[in-house]
Amino acid sequence: MTQTPGITLSIVIPAYNEALRIDSGMERLCQAAEGGAFDPRSTEIIVVDDGSKDDTGERAEKALRTLPHVTVLRLATNSGKGAAVRAGVASATGLSVAFTDADTAIDPSQFAELSAALRESDIAIGSRTLTESAAERELMRRSLMGRAFNRLVSLATDLSLHDTQCGFKGFRTPVGRLLFHFMVFDRFAFDVDVLSTAHRLQFSIAEVPVHWRHIGGSRIRPLSDPILMAHDVLRARKRLRYAPPVTAIAVSHQRGRPAALEAAQRAAGPLVPLIDWRDDSVLVLLALCDPPQVAAVVDRLGSTPETTSRELAVTVDQLSNLAPLKLRTPNLSGPAPGSTAPQPLKGGRNQA
Questions:
Q1: Distance CA 100, CA 183 (A)
Q2: CA 129 distance to own-chain centroid
Q3: Which of 144, 178, 239, 240 is deepest in the core (most CB within 10 A)?
Q4: Phi and psi for 211 in degrees, rounded to 5?
Q5: Cα separation of 99 and 46, whole Å?
Q6: Number of neighbours of residue 68 by Cβ within 10 angstroms
Q7: Distance between CA atoms of 271 and 22, rounded to whole angstroms?
Q8: Antiparallel, parallel or unpaired: β 123-127 and 96-100
Q9: Is 322 exposed, middle or buried (0-12, 13-18, 19+ CB in 10 A)?
Q10: In the chain, where does DSSP find H-type helix?
C-alpha cells in the first residue's frame, strides 16, 4: 500500500510461458523508455510470471536489466491473466498503474498517451477501433471474433466502449485497487468484469487510440476461449453479487472531516481509496489488503489523538448507491511526456 518515493507509474506485465516472445517484447519496452514514452527513473516495471513452465521470469529479468526499477513476481500456479494483473496491481507502488501484454503488440511508446489521459479521467483504455488508431491487418478469424465479442459485451453490460479487450489499460492506483478487489473473473473476460464495475460506480473512462500489430504465438485458443469468454460476459450482470466485500474503516475526528482525511491519509497512504462518508467522516477502503495490512492501518488510526474509527465491510452494491463515486486520488497533474489527454467518456534496482 506504500508508494515508493519518486515512482509515479507502475507498469504491470502478465506473462505465461512467454519465453519465445518476451525478449522482443521487453526490448520494445526499453526502446519506448529511451524514446521518452515514460521516465524509467519514476516508473516501475512489474512482470507477473503466471506459473510459467519455461524460463519466462528469468528472461524478463535479463531483458529489463538496464531499467532501474524492475520486479518479477512469480505465482506458484497458472491462475489466469486477470489474476496475474490483480497481483501486479496489488503490489504496485506508483500513483497510477497500467498493464500491457508481454508481446507488446500495442506500441509501448503510447504509455505517454495513457498517462496523459489519466490526468483527466479515472481510467484510460486503449482502443484499436477508433478513427485515429492504427492496426496491421489481422487474421480474419481474430477480427470477426473481436467484433462479435464487443457486440456481445455492449448488449450484456450496457458498456458503450469500442474495445473492451485491448490489453492496454491504465488506472489511478486507488481506482485500480478497488476495481480489481471486486473482480471475480480471473481469465480472459476479466477486462469486462473490471469495466462493468467501473460503469456501475460511474468512474470516468477515456478511450485512447493505439497502434497495434499482430504478433504470432498468442495464447488465445480460437475455438474454446471465445465460448468461455462469452459465458462470463453473459454472467456479468449477476457477477457483482459474488464480489467480495471490501474491508473499510470509517474515520472521524473531533476537528471535522479535513482532520479525519489527514489522519486517514497518514494511516493508509496515498494509494488506498478514500471517500467522504456520512457525518463528516472519511471511509478508508482497504482494497487488495491482507489482514496484516488492515491491522497496521487500524493500529495507526488507534494511536492518532482525537480520532475515532470503526471497521466494517462494504459491498459494491453499497458503493454504487454513492455513485458517481469520487475517490480521493493522488494528484497526477503536470505535463505528460509526448501528448495531451483525450476527452473523457463516462461510462539500477532489480528485484526477483
A1: 18
A2: 21
A3: 178
A4: -105, 125
A5: 9
A6: 14
A7: 29
A8: unpaired
A9: middle
A10: 22-34, 56-63, 81-91, 111-117, 140-157, 173-182, 190-200, 224-234, 257-268, 291-302, 316-320
What's residue 225's pLDDT?
Answer: 56
Q: Does position 330 have pLDDT exceeding 80, yes or no?
A: no
Facing residues of 97 across strands?
10, 171
Domains of the chain: 9-240 (3.90.550.10), 246-320 (3.30.70.120)
- pLDDT bin (cut points 50, 70, 90) of residue 140 is very low
Q: Look at residues 129, 246, 231 and name the one whose alpha carbon lies nearest to residue 185.
A: 231
- Say whether pLDDT at 205 is over 80: yes
Distance, in Å, from the CA atom of 228 to the CA atom of 189, rounded to the nearest integer, reads 8
Kindly report the backbone phi and psi dihedral angles of residue 32, in degrees, each rounded to the nearest multiple of 5, phi listed first: -65, -40
Instruction: Kindly report which listed range (27-36, 103-112, 340-349) carries the lowest average pLDDT score.
Output: 340-349
- C-beta atoms surrounding 324 within 10 Å: 11
Write out the three cell numbers for 290: 491482507
Instruction: Please give the average per-residue pLDDT across 308-315, as a whole number.
Output: 96
Residue carrying C-alpha cell 492504427 = 134
**Which residue type, as a one-letter code, is found at position 310?**
R
The answer to whether residues 172 and 329 touch, using CB atoms and an 8 Å cutoff, is yes
Q: Are 219 and 17 in contact (CB under 8 A)?
A: yes
Global confidence as pTM = 0.86
Distance of alpha carbon 292 from alpha carbon 60, whole angstroms: 30
Cα dihedral 23, 25, 31, 32 sign: negative
